UniProtKB/TrEMBL annotation:
Keyword Ligase belongs to the record: no
Family to which this protein belongs: Belongs to the GerABKC lipoprotein family.
The entry's keywords: Germination, Lipoprotein, Membrane, Palmitate, Signal
Keyword DNA-binding set for record: no
Membrane topology label: Lipid-anchor
Residue intervals of the Spore germination protein N-terminal domain: 2-78
Protein name, UniProt field: Uncharacterized protein
Signal peptide feature range: none
Amino acid sequence: MILRDHEFRSDAYIIITSDDTEKFLNISSPIESIPAKELENVIINYYVNSKTIPIKIYDFVKMTNTKSKVAVAPFVEIKRPFAKSQENYTFFVSKMAVFDNFKLIGYLNYNETRGLLWTLNKIKSEIYPIVNKNIKVSLELTHSTCKITAKDFKDKVLFKIEIVSEVNLGEKEKGQITQKNLEELKKEFIKSISKDINETLKKSFDLKADILHLQDFYYLQHKKQPKFDKDKISVSITVKTFVRRFGMLKN
């Protein structure tokens, strides 16, 4: 009905919540007088920080009408900014709801959501703190691309996830920027990306749902659908990263 009826807008955002609907829709904000507009701003801000994905009705249906049949939507709660604060309630995106063929089956935390963003090629920006014995910095993601290929090998399907990312040096607390330290930063950053994707993959197997839409990539290349089984799927992750800028300081 939502898709067929001309009075519905398919470009409206889908939000999942467990809060009382009337209370949810009557949040007062010092910035926006319309709660729906404030909610939209919150979703976009969380997206910029790679903690959620704005999902509209047609996006949700499009994701469900794939071989994987898995769709996600932001789970939003209302709470005070601080535990003992007397300020007004505000919107808070706490996780992502996961649906398998329109049925709610689980949730993704921030790291698992970020892993999904990497593979969907939807990650916009993010700050990655990198700490080791030689240096402590924060890297700001500025650009990334992701390519996924699949091939059959014996009785398994091998998926190769290739990511190319560009970052800037956003903050440096200790250590010197030498060529050796720069290579260490890249290695730690690559580990962080791989960890995010592996966490999402693990949640996929736990929920028995193809959250990363691997079956869709396989179908595009082989015109058949593989069985989503932990014992039948193998995933390799390759990341190349480039540190482009170091800011206005020489060191």
